[in-house]
Inverse folding.
C-alpha cells in the first residue's frame, strides 16, 4: 500500500493533516533560510543599529543601550514571525489524529449496531480509519515540534550574538 492510499483511507482528516504538513514544512524551510541569512548578517545589522543610535552624541550610555534593546526587540519580533504557526501545527496535529481515532471507533461501533458482526470488514474499516489518523497526526506533529524547538534555539543564539555586537559598538 502506498502513501496516497493511506491518506485516502484516512479520509478528510488526513487531507487536513496533509495540508497542515505542507504549510508547516514550507514555513519551517523559509524560517530556516531567513534565520540563516540573519545569522550571516548579524555584524552588519548590529553596525546599522549602532550607527543610528551613536548619531546622537548627547545621549549617555544607558539611554543608548535602552534604545539598542528596543531596536533589538523589534528586530527579534520580526525574526520570530511564523514560529507560532509552526507551534500551532505541532499542537493541533495530534488532536486531529485523536479526532480521527474517535470518528473511526464511532464508525466501527455504528457498523456493529446496524449489522452486527456479520461483516467484520466494515468493522475493520472504522478501526483502520482510527489507526491511520492517529499515526498521521503524530507524523505531522513530531517534525513540527522538533523544528519549532530548533528554530527557537537559533533565535536565542541570534539574539545573544546581536546583543554582544551591539554592546561592543555602543560602549
Amino acid at each position: 500500500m502506498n502513501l496516497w492510499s493511506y491518506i485516502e483511507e484516512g479520509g478528510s482528516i488526513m487531507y487536513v493533516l496533509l495540508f497542515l504538513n505542507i504549510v508547516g514544512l514550507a514555513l519551517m524551510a523559509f524560517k530556516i533560510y531567513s534565520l540563516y541569512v540573519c545569522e550571516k548578517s548579524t555584524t552588519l545589522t548590529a553596525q546599522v543599529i549602532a550607527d543610528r543610535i551613536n548619531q546622537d552624541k548627547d545621549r549617555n550610555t544607558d539611554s543608548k543601550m535602552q534604545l539598542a534593546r528596543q531596536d533589538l526587540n523589534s528586530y527579534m519580533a520580526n525574526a520570530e514571525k511564523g514560529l507560532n504557526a509552526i507551534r500551532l501545527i505541532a499542537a493541533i496535529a495530534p488532536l486531529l489524529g485523536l479526532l480521527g481515532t474517535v470518528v473511526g471507533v464511532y464508525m466501527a461501533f455504528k457498523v456493529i449496531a446496524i449489522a452486527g458482526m456479520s461483516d467484520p470488514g466494515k468493522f475493520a474499516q472504522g478501526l483502520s480509519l482510527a489507526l491511520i489518523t492517529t499515526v498521521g497526526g503524530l507524523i505531522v506533529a513530531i517534525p513540527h515540534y522538533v523544528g519549532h524547538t530548533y528554530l527557537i534555539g537559533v533565535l536565542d543564539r541570534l539574539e545573544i550574538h546581536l546583543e554582544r555586537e551591539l554592546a561592543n559598538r555602543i560602549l
Q: What stands out?
A: The chain has one domain: 3-170. The chain is about 90% helix and 0% strand. The CA atoms of residues 98 and 134 lie 6 Å apart. The two ends are 64 Å apart (CA to CA).
